[in-house]
Glycosyltransferase
Amino acid sequence: MPNSSKTPLRPLTTSDSSIRKLGVMGKVAIEGRVKTRLGNTIGFDKSAQIHQRFLDHLFKVFQDWGDERHWVVSPIESISPTTPKPTSDWQIIDQGGGNLGDRMRRWFANHACNRPALPRSHAILIGADCPLLSPAAMDHADRLFRDCDLVLGPASDGGYYLIGLSVSNNLPNENNPPNRATPPSRTILDALWNDIPWSTDEVFERTVAAAESIGLRIGRLPMRSDVDTEEDLTALLHQIEHPADNTEVSSDHIELARDIRRILSQPMI
């Protein structure tokens, strides 16, 4: 299995023919319906504000990354004229119904697979619970597609914070040689998103096993932590405000931490 620490990374070049697509999967910030585990301890109004702040941060830092950017949203009918939205560089895409796997599968089916007019799609989907993801991390994921079909970012809770697919819709070329047979799109979609025990600590390993069973080449990113609880939020603030040696902290991260502190200081309702 290719590993991000062992796979040689080649620089991205303008000659690459892939279409890079990024989806940020995040709910509308409705009080009591987002980040409920966090809301149980800090208040649902504050957890909704923090969720929105995470979305705003991700929309800003990735506003120039890739060829297409999608806010993959639920419930789309809750978007109103007053709902904070990303810039016009982002498309708003409905997650649709079903479980988490159904909704992820739908985005990849519609925006990566079965698109014969496109050469090769590099489609990456992330959640809104890992706000320290950067364009550099996304470039790392994209480079792994040079040698991999699937890229996963393992989360410390046993899930994953990023999943990406490289799908060719053209005749064989240097990145899709004729002796490299990849499974049909339907087979890939079924394997990766059917029969996975969502919201458990088995999600990552079960996904890896499913991908290996159909012969996909897998690249892994470094492990990261989602922000689901107050303890996770405290760890995020510490990571920004007390970075390890030689760790760069951007002005966007400092502003994010400052806004989180401001939200947390509000009186409980």
User: Anything to note?
Assistant: Residues 1-15, 170-180 have pLDDT under 50 and may be disordered. Residues 44-61 form the longest helix (18 residues).
